[in-house]
């Protein structure tokens, strides 16, 4: 067995993966190196990235493949998406013996810099270009599992029901853990936030607003942070790691980006630069500001963590206490952002948005 084959086998647990790559792509593996959750492959036809497809996520990657081709045609010189390399049978992925995989082109680029205000503004312009490039996207099949436009309310109502179940699970267990205790300490506050969010969203007619604004962009990356943003020698930005991609309005992505920016810096100037940079390319409708406020309210990170602990049981309850405490702290810290956001919107863009009274 060659060193390259041994490397791939050790890194993936797939004994025949080099043979499968040869069969599906007509490439010969010369070397492999793990990099940030993917495998960088050196082959006789150049460099590639091999990424494992999560269980039940094949259709997401089929959708991403279609989206990447559409974006490349819509704005070929702007924000890029790595298009999955098609197999010899023109499929965007292939099945291994243990997992499924997608092969992506290697991008010769570096992580974006976010050390200056102008960096945030520039990257926000690139995000706006991406959303614009998705406006005419029509997938070949509905991909209903990933279609979220106009479906926020049902999602949030289900989330509230889950929180109540998780609260009872932590309260009535015979052997409460530290995780249970931390969750119970913040459960009333978290439920109140979600209840207020649902009331706010009903008041603004949120799902109707979403359907009315889908014309401005139909897809969201939804995992925006520095390690998923690359810039090449020409200054072109590339969005990578599409595991969370959904079909939804642009405010879902933009709210996530605002949360990341404020969480990383705590800076009003960064929030302002994000909104200004984005709107240099794609101005927001007034109706989209309340949607952003609603997305900022949603305690998504904490909810996902609790789902992993109490529902899916993919996260050990014995070791999750620090994560629950950290996520709860971030939700409380987010109140500063929720108070600041309407002020920025009013002072910088002369738009007044409804707010929760207790967050004024």
UniProtKB/TrEMBL annotation:
InterPro entries: Aminoglycoside_PTrfase, CotS-like, Kinase-like_dom_sf. Keywords: Transferase. Gene3D superfamilies: 3.90.1200.10, Phosphorylase Kinase, domain 1 (3.30.200.20). One of its GO terms (cellular component) is endospore-forming forespore. The keyword Repeat does not apply. Transmembrane segments: none annotated. It comes from Paenactinomyces guangxiensis. This is Phosphotransferase. Residues 41-282 form the Aminoglycoside phosphotransferase domain. Pfam families: APH. One of its GO terms (molecular function) is transferase activity.
């Amino acid at each position: 067995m060659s060193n390259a084959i041994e490397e791939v086998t050790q890194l993936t647990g797939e004994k025949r993966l080099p043979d499968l790559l040869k069969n599906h792509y007509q490439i010969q593996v010369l070397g492999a190196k793990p990099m940030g959750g993917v495998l960088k492959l050196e082959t006789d036809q150049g460099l590639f990235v091999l990424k494992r497809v999560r269980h039940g996520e094949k259709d997401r990657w089929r959708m991403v493949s279609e989206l990447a081709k559409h974006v490349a045609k819509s704005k070929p010189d702007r924000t890029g998406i790595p298009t999955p390399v098609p197999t010899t049978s023109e499929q965007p992925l292939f099945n291994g013996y243990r997992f499924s995989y997608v092969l992506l082109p290697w991008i010769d680029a570096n992580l974006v810099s976010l050390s200056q205000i102008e960096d945030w503004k520039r990257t926000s312009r690139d995000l706006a270009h991406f959303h614009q490039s998705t406006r005419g996207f029509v997938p070949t099949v509905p991909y209903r599992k990933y279609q979220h436009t106009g479906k926020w309310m049902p999602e949030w109502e289900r989330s509230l029901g889950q929180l109540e179940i998780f609260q009872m699970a932590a309260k009535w267990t015979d052997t409460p853990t530290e995780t249970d205790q931390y969750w119970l300490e913040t459960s009333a506050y978290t439920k109140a936030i979600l209840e207020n969010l649902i009331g706010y969203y009903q008041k603004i007619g949120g799902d109707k607003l979403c359907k009315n604004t889908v014309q401005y962009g139909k897809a969201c990356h939804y995992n925006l942070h520095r390690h998923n943003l690359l810039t090449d020698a020409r200054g072109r930005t590339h969005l990578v790691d599409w595991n969370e991609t959904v079909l939804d309005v642009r405010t879902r992505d933009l709210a996530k980006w605002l949360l990341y920016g404020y969480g990383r810096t705590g800076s009003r100037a960064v929030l302002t630069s994000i909104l200004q940079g984005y709107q240099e390319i794609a101005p927001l409708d007034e109706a989209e500001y309340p949607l952003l406020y609603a997305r900022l309210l949603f305690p998504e990170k904490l909810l996902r963590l609790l789902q992993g602990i109490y529902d899916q049981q993919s996260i050990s309850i014995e070791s999750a206490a620090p994560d629950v405490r950290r996520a709860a702290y971030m939700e409380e810290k987010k109140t500063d952002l929720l108070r600041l956001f309407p002020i920025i919107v009013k002072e910088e863009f002369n738009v007044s948005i409804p707010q929760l009274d207790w967050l004024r």
